[in-house]
Design goal:
This is Reverse transcriptase zinc-binding domain-containing protein. It comes from Solanum verrucosum. InterPro entries: RVT-Znf. This protein is 50% helix and 0% strand. With 140 residues, it is mainly alpha-helical. It has a domain of 74 residues. Helix 3 packs antiparallel against helix 4. The chain starts with 10 loop residues before the first helix and ends with a helix. 4% of the residues are buried.
Length: 140
Amino acid sequence: MNLLFRRFNNDWDIEWVSDMLALIGDFLGTNPKTDELLWRHHIDGQFSVNRMYKRDLATIAGKKSGSWSAIRKSVAPTKVKCFTWLVTGRACLTHDKFQKRGRIIASRCYLCKEALETNNHMFLHCKVTTQVWALFTNLG
């Protein structure tokens, strides 16, 4: 048995540590059942790629709104559809996403320089963005 720990072990510690490791090694747990893998997102606990795809699609798009199919069926140019899909799925690479990936970056919005740059801020709550939306709504 290798008893290399962070601190120096004295002679009187070795027997105690050995007994503790033996006790821990013999611990079987509190549940007599054997462990099994269960996927908590389905009633029977069985995982399938199809079930995961349906679950993720329902989670992202929302069952009530047909936003994904509305975007797909739109007559807008493909690059506009792709961008709209990214925005509605909150998948645009904004500063908060870069920070979650471990990048050190200034997190202020480039447009208003007041708030953290997130998808919601960039496309809904930013002062500059609301002015742009107002221009579009006044066109019709």
